[in-house]
Amino acid sequence: QVRVVESGGGLVQAGGSLTLSCKVSGLKLEDHTMGWFRQAPGEAREGVSCISWNGGVIYLRDSVKGRFTVSRDNAKNTVYLQMNSLKPEDRATYYCAVDQYDYCMSFTPIRPRHWGQGTQVTVSV
User: Which of 32, 43, 47, 119 has a Cα-to-Cα distance from 92 of 20 to 30 A?
Assistant: First the structure.
């Protein structure tokens, strides 16, 4: 059984930083692309980043470029999202997803198959 668990969310002031972690069990992470998504209250879920199986290809949505960094440690079956210079508009529940494929074509993974429960990020003014 595949299990995806996000952690690291919280309340931070605008301009602050948070690092989200996504721990996956039940499969070999290096066989899969990983994605981060977010969903703000009342909004649709949107892709934030996609990182290929070995971290060699990374896409980030334009609004987070230069502020967010995504990385992975396949040996630890863990993916990270480092978020700096946070803005109030970054407030959302952040989800990690294991994709069916091992490559990315954009900041939205092609076919996410396994999801975590999400971790809340709140940015105060």
Answer: 32
